[in-house]
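Justification of computing resources. Each target in the renewal requires a structure prediction run like the one illustrated here; the chain below, 233 residues long, is used simply to show the kind of job we budget for.
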Amino acid sequence: MAETAVKTSGRVSRVYDQVREMATSFEFKPEERINEVALSQKLGASRTPVREALNRLVAEGFLTFSEGRGFFCRPLSPSLVMDLYEARMAIECEALRLAVARASDDEIDQVIFDLEETHERYSPDSSPEDLVRLDENFHLALARLSRNVELMRLLENINGRIRYIRLVDMQGLRGVQDKDGVTLSAHRTIADALKNRDAAGAVSAMRSHIERRREEATEAVRIAYSQLYVPVD
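Resulting structure tokens:
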């Protein structure tokens, strides 16, 4: 019986991961109704794990549910994206403030070392996916130093919900000479303030860094719509 429960849990987790990736990348179009039967067939799974995955993704904000109508992809609107960026800013600034007080010197030094180890990958030739991944990893490493698992969980959720827009934004900057330099410079400024235990300076640098990307998100939403509905060959 225990073995059956483990297998069931594993199937649900596998289906959840697959559907979450589809929702993150807007494989479902914004506000599109999700056909559960077709999705089950596509994933080679029964309706039960698919339904569990869909319900979980509704709770996490990746999908929506309408009584009597079913599950839908979340909307993609400038106002919603702005809300997510504002939430990200609040979470990251608080996590960084806690990190200044709670992180050990060795932990801070490791974050700085890892940042410098990846500096060559902050290149105009790097893929948007790689650049977004580098950025997320740095910000998650800082949040981890807060020792607050709930802040980490919230940040990971928001990262997933804005990742598509961030990829579109990075694609738009492809070939722009300072795409890599601006991000890396901002990260170094934040890390230096953290090392100096300068909470105000670290938070100010973090706020400016996120605000820069937030200001460009509205245009990224417009471009995202054009890519979703008029795919480029």
